[in-house]
């Protein structure tokens, strides 16, 4: 993500140090695409030609930032048969899916919404601009261990600091959540202050910690999710070793401060979850959050929300989060087989996108929500295909202006495989964001 921006606008772009712009998941709107009359599917030869063009130019041909992934993993992917033969796979999770099945089953509610099928931590983000997320958080409360409404920003103001966002808070919703389940409530706070003013001044850092703790105590929160690293990277301050040290020191001061306060549910202090992006290459750069940083912050951070999504973007269309890329990211951060710190791995929460992308070929398009996805299925009645290198479903279609599109959106199979990957590492997951998903996704959690 290239530029620092305000977070209230779902169409905003935000900075990041990872492989592709991380703002794209913010850009899906909650309203449906215009619903048109059902149209006949395109002829098979046309789809085959589109598929060949898509694979050659947008899956095989690499952008520089994802060269490592594509060179290493393009020829070593899980086959369809091995994915479907997974011993833990529920019968309704399969590769061979069609648009009729999705349209008929997507609203299916799990028979027992209180039973958890994924035993590790599950953080779910909720955004003010997508109200469905508020309802999902209440309906499936027991499926989540942590809920993070996207409400707050810490900003520089007249030589001081201000914590803004109280106007976003829904008090009735908070009461309903606490009555329905035991998920911890940790609102997200984006650090939007001028980095050097915050990090180099001890009094400013102390004031920031005080403002955040005071809000948690007054509102009865169980802690906070803090997002700052990608913004600091975009400002360039992390290229300075001294500033980088101060950045880590601020996180430590905040974590220690939060842990010193008893929460309403736990006696061992408020929790701190810290948002990080995947390293930009196999060689950890100064602006990357790397394994040494995980080790340093282990004692003061309760969870790391890892943004393993937005692998592709409108300038380089392709899958949202290839499984091999996720695996390589985990190896970089946690070490290779037989050398993994399982306790630290449990604090690493792998990002799952519950949004998708409708790319215009050869370049263009953007993010879509579940509602958008269902409208596309209904209108175009496409042939869904399994892209085995990324282990994601996608489909192709031609719009009313004769433009070619490739749509990647999560499926039960793609989510299941990523949950199994997290389970294998003893890692948790973080979902962006639950208002964008389909109801039957939660049966897997």
Description of the structure:
The strands form 2 sheets. This protein has an 8-stranded parallel beta barrel, surrounded by 5 helices. Strands 11-10-14-13-12 form a 5-stranded antiparallel beta sheet, sandwiched between helices. It is globular. It is α/β, with parallel strands linked by helices and 445 residues long. The longest helix is centred in the middle third of the chain and has 19 residues. α8 runs parallel beside α10.
Provide tags for this entry.
single chain, 445 residues, alpha/beta, 15 helices, disordered N terminus
Strand order of the largest sheet: 1-2-5-6-7-8-9-15
- Biggest β-sheet description: 8 strands, parallel, barrel
Rg is 21 Å
Low-confidence stretches: 1-43, 56-79
Task: Summarize the helices and strands and which ones pair or pack.
Layout lengths: L43 H17 L6 H7 L6 H5 L14 H7 L16 E5 L5 H8 L6 E12 L2 E5 L6 H10 L3 E2 L2 E4 L3 H5 L2 H18 L3 E5 L1 H7 L5 H19 L11 E6 L14 H7 L5 E4 L16 H12 L7 H6 E6 L2 E5 L4 E4 L1 H11 L4 E3 L4 E7 L5 E5 L3 H14 L2 E5 L13
Parallel strand pairs: 1-2, 1-15, 2-4, 2-5, 5-6, 6-7, 7-8, 8-9, 9-15
Antiparallel strand pairs: 2-3, 10-11, 10-14, 12-13, 13-14
Helix pairs in contact: 8-10
Summed up:
By secondary structure, this protein is of the alpha/beta class. 34% of the residues lie in helices and 18% in strands.
């Amino acid at each position: 993500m290239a530029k620092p921006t305000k977070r209230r606008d779902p169409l905003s772009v935000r900075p990041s140090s990872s492989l592709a712009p991380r703002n794209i998941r913010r850009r899906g709107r909650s309203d449906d695409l215009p619903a048109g009359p059902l149209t006949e599917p395109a002829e098979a030869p046309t789809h085959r030609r589109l598929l060949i063009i898509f694979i050659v130019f947008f899956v095989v041909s690499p952008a520089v930032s994802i060269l490592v992934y594509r060179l290493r993993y393009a020829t070593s992917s899980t086959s369809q048969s091995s994915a479907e033969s997974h011993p833990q796979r529920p019968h309704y999770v399969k590769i061979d899916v069609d648009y009729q099945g999705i349209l008929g089953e997507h609203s299916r509610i799990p028979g027992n919404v209180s039973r958890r099928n994924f035993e590790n931590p599950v953080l779910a983000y909720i955004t003010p601009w997508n109200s469905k997320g508020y309802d999902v958080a209440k309906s499936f409360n027991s499926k989540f261990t942590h809920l993070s409404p996207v409400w707050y920003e810490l900003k520089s103001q007249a030589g001081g600091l201000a914590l803004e966002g109280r106007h976003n808070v829904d008090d009735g919703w908070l009461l309903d959540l606490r009555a329905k389940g035991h998920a911890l409530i940790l609102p997200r706070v984006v650090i939007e202050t001028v980095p050097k003013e915050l990090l180099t001044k001890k009094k400013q850092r102390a004031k920031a910690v005080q403002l955040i703790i005071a809000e948690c105590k007054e509102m009865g929160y169980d802690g906070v999710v803090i997002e700052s690293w990608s913004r600091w990277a975009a400002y360039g301050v992390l290229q300075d070793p001294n500033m980088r040290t101060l950045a880590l020191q601020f996180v430590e001061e905040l974590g220690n401060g939060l842990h010193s306060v008893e929460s309403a549910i736990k006696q061992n202090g408020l929790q701190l979850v810290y948002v990080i992006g995947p390293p930009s290459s196999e060689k950890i750069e100064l602006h990357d959050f790397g394994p040494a940083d995980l080790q340093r912050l282990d004692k003061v951070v309760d969870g790391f929300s890892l943004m393993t999504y937005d692998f592709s973007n409108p300038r380089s269309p392709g899958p949202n989060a290839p499984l091999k890329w996720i695996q390589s990211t985990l190896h970089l951060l946690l070490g290779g087989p037989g050398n993994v710190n399982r306790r630290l791995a449990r604090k690493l929460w792998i990002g799952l996108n519950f949004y998708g992308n409708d790319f215009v070929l050869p370049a263009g398009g953007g993010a879509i929500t579940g509602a958008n996805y269902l409208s596309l299925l209904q209108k175009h009645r496409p042939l869904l295909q399994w892209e085995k290198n990324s282990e994601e479903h996608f489909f192709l279609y031609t719009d009313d202006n004769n433009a070619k599109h490739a749509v990647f959106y999560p499926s039960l199979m793609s989510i299941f495989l990523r949950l199994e990957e997290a389970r294998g590492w003893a890692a948790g997951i973080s979902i962006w964001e639950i208002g964008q998903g389909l109801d039957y996704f939660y049966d897997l959690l």
